[in-house]
């Protein structure tokens, strides 16, 4: 006996899908829009400087929440060229400085489960290996695929987002 597929949608399903796609999305504010830069988007507690606001996808109209406030720790470390050489850089993402310069990153540990909504690439063959000899994975918005917003080492427990490549949910 073969089952016939139902041509009826469950009650309320279509309305729920339409409501979810038309909900208002938070407006991402770029780091460059804050008068005092990084100090406007951080708060320090017990010697650790964390993200004061939810981190969002920077694409206008997306605004997907990538990370909740207070989860990431601000770190300054060397820049990485995370743009694969075989893909042109995205015009919405500011270029990262040369690898000889240091920049500010959001460090997220110990697992990818700390994120609300992030996507990971496969290990990127066109990037050099990390100082630990591991391949890099790139981080992107899981909703609209804008990236790279950051990186991690393959199999690593540290996840890095460039402070200049994410949006901030602020009451500006």
UniProtKB/TrEMBL annotation:
<dbReference type="GO" id="GO:0005829">
    <property type="term" value="C:cytosol"/>
</dbReference>
<dbReference type="GO" id="GO:0005085">
    <property type="term" value="F:guanyl-nucleotide exchange factor activity"/>
</dbReference>
<dbReference type="GO" id="GO:0015031">
    <property type="term" value="P:protein transport"/>
</dbReference>
<keyword id="KW-0813">Transport</keyword>
<dbReference type="InterPro" id="IPR011057">
    <property type="entry name" value="Mss4-like_sf"/>
</dbReference>
<dbReference type="GO" id="GO:0007264">
    <property type="term" value="P:small GTPase-mediated signal transduction"/>
</dbReference>
<keyword id="KW-0653">Protein transport</keyword>
<protein>
    <submittedName>
        <fullName>Mss4-like protein</fullName>
    </submittedName>
</protein>
<dbReference type="GO" id="GO:0008270">
    <property type="term" value="F:zinc ion binding"/>
</dbReference>
<dbReference type="Pfam" id="PF04421">
    <property type="entry name" value="Mss4"/>
</dbReference>
<dbReference type="GO" id="GO:0016020">
    <property type="term" value="C:membrane"/>
</dbReference>
<keyword id="KW-0344">Guanine-nucleotide releasing factor</keyword>
<dbReference type="InterPro" id="IPR011323">
    <property type="entry name" value="Mss4/transl-control_tumour"/>
</dbReference>
<dbReference type="InterPro" id="IPR007515">
    <property type="entry name" value="Mss4"/>
</dbReference>
<dbReference type="GO" id="GO:0006892">
    <property type="term" value="P:post-Golgi vesicle-mediated transport"/>
</dbReference>
């Amino acid at each position: 006996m073969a089952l016939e597929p139902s041509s009826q949608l469950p009650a309320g399903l279509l309305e729920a899908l339409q409501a979810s796609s038309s909900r208002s999305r938070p407006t991402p504010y770029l780091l460059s829009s804050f008068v005092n830069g990084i100090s406007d988007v951080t708060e320090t507690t017990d010697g650790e400087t964390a993200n004061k606001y939810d981190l969002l996808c920077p694409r206008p109209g997306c605004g997907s929440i990538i990370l909740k406030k207070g989860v990431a720790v601000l770190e300054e470390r060397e820049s990485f060229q995370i743009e694969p050489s075989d893909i042109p850089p995205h015009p919405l993402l500011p270029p990262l400085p040369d690898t000889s310069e240091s920049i500010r990153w959001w460090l997220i540990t110990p697992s990818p489960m700390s994120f609300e909504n992030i996507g990971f690439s496969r290990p990127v063959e066109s990037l050099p290996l990390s100082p630990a000899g591991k391949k890099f994975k790139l981080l992107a918005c899981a909703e609209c695929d804008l990236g790279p917003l950051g990186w991690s080492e393959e199999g690593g427990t540290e996840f890095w987002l460039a402070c200049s490549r994410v949006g901030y949910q602020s009451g500006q």
